[in-house]
């Protein structure tokens, strides 16, 4: 599903970061483990096409990301990836339901209100359809972000430090939810984290 | 979800700033709308009333006053001229047509004008009811007069001396309404027309009763060359362009006559009024400029607040151009709203004005008229919105997803 070959990245005025080559098979969830500064967010962004590769090759679903022009990359990203960022980054001007409806709109896909409703119910947010983002608890916001990431039926879900700020109990709940949701929707979950706790849940990992 | 809902949600998310910006622009646009409506209607009114009148001859005095009094019926007469003098001018070879007017009386604020049938004919007036006045003390009412005073053919009234409603009544000679004019949107709407003898009669100047040997060209059934009887003015049409130079000079050389050209005097009037209009226009321009600046600042700042939103949108598949467009749409939606409300407000203000100020109805000002300038105002406002949102839109266009989301 995801193949990373001889990736290095250099920020202006700092050292070059080198990444090991690896391959994640479809449906096989994996971790990108590393301490802060190890470049795990950089690698996650390279895989997600949020950052242009400077060298090597990144293939997602058999497509070389470097071969896509910016416009096609935007479209590819919107239709094949779901993102879960450390901070929830929901659009606070929109309601809960609108945040979900916006996902296919942004990706240029048809909007399916029934699917939005089904996902809200699945994640226990059915009572919050019309609520404002500011009315959600931390946990509810995180579940909404997961719902948003799943909505466009992505083949890959990229999560950046989804558990770092959580206690053990909540950490376990979130990672269970992510794993369960990804598996049931047929998406490959990739989590970039420094959180060693996750190794027990996702044994397959790449150390950076 | 679509772009309009998205942009509208952002506007709704900061209601106070949105309302402030819309109001700021709306007030500026409404001031300009009122100006456009007012000055256009005034101009139309003035040109339609003075169209075809090349020269007005009255007693010596201010030429502007001669025009205001005898063409627009808003100022007082400069005095009267002798019928014999008026006849001499009317007979001049450069004069194609001369219409006599005798002013001085009124009824409840509406002027009674002694004239002949040439005057309504000149404005192509048509009757709504009754027959034209024929004998003495018979009057034809303008449409507004009939409407406001609720008079119809058969009604009688006493005229008052002077052009205000306070003058003393001419008790002995009541007028009889014989007809009412159709609305013509000219000065005739506000006048009461009769023959010149009626005006004389109201002032106890009776006719001899004998048929005139040599009837006057201006006042039928009256002997020509009478230097004791007077009229207020003559409206003159030139026979040929040569008259433009010769006739005013000829008339002004006569000791007690004053010639005034409506075209020249109204141009002078517009240039005086123009200063006032310019002040308002400047005030409105400042308001519009301020709202433009305010929209720019609000959008520019909100791009900073919204950098995560923008980055998330990009991550979720929105390309740079669509992000740019959404910001431009936000700016132009604000100004579209502002100018639409402004145009509405302008018309509403004028409507309120016509409802509350009686004189405005007399001047024929209407709120439900639209001018092409308003379309330009609307289009211009949308342009302003686009202009103000250009820089914030470029900011959005340049959003670097990785830098924003990686938080460094």
What is the structural class of chain B? alpha+beta
Uncertain spans of chain B, ≥5 residues at pLDDT below 50? none
Number of helices of chain B: 14
Give me the oligomer status. heterodimer
The end-to-end distance of chain A, rounded to whole angstroms, is: 20 Å
| Uncertain parts of chain A | none
Mean pLDDT of chain B: 90
Q: Order of SSEs of chain A, N→C?
A: EEEEEHEEHEHHHEHEE
Order of helices and strands of chain B: HHEHEHEEHEEHEEEEHEEHEHHHHHH
- Estimated helix fraction of chain A: 25-40%
Search tags:
heterodimer; A: 208 residues; five-stranded parallel β-sheet; four-stranded antiparallel β-sheet; 6 helices; B: 408 residues; alpha+beta; eleven-stranded mixed β-sheet; 14 helices
Describe this structure in words.
The complex is a heterodimer of chains A (208) and B (408). Chain A is an alpha/beta fold and 208 residues long. In chain A, strand 2 and strand 3 form a beta hairpin. Chain A contains 6 helices and 11 strands. Chain A is globular, with a radius of gyration of 17 Å. In chain A, 35% of the residues lie in helices and 20% in strands. In chain A, the strands form 3 sheets. Chain A has a 5-stranded parallel β-sheet, with helices on both faces. Chain A has a 4-stranded antiparallel β-sheet with strand order 4-1-6-7, with no helix packed on it. With 408 residues, chain B is α+β, with helices and mostly antiparallel strands. Chain B is 54% helix and 15% strand. Chain B has helices at residues 3-13, 15-50, 63-70, 83-90, 118-122, 143-149, 196-202, 242-252, 262-305, 307-315, 320-356, 358-362, 372-397, 401-406, and strands at 55-59, 81-82, 95-107, 110-115, 127-130, 138-141, 156-157, 160-161, 175-181, 191-195, 230-231, 233-238, 257-260. In chain B, the strands form 2 sheets. In chain B, strands 1, 3, 4, 5, 6, 7, 8, 9, 10, 12 and 13 form an 11-stranded mixed β-sheet that branches. In chain B, strand 3 and strand 4 (110-115) form a beta hairpin. In chain B, helix 2 crosses helix 11 (320-356) and helix 11 (320-356) packs antiparallel against helix 13. The two termini of chain B are 31 Å apart. The relative contact order of chain B is 0.18. The model of chain B has no long low-confidence stretch (mean pLDDT 90). Chains A and B meet through helix 1, helix 2 and helix 3 of A and helix 1, helix 10 and helix 14 of B.
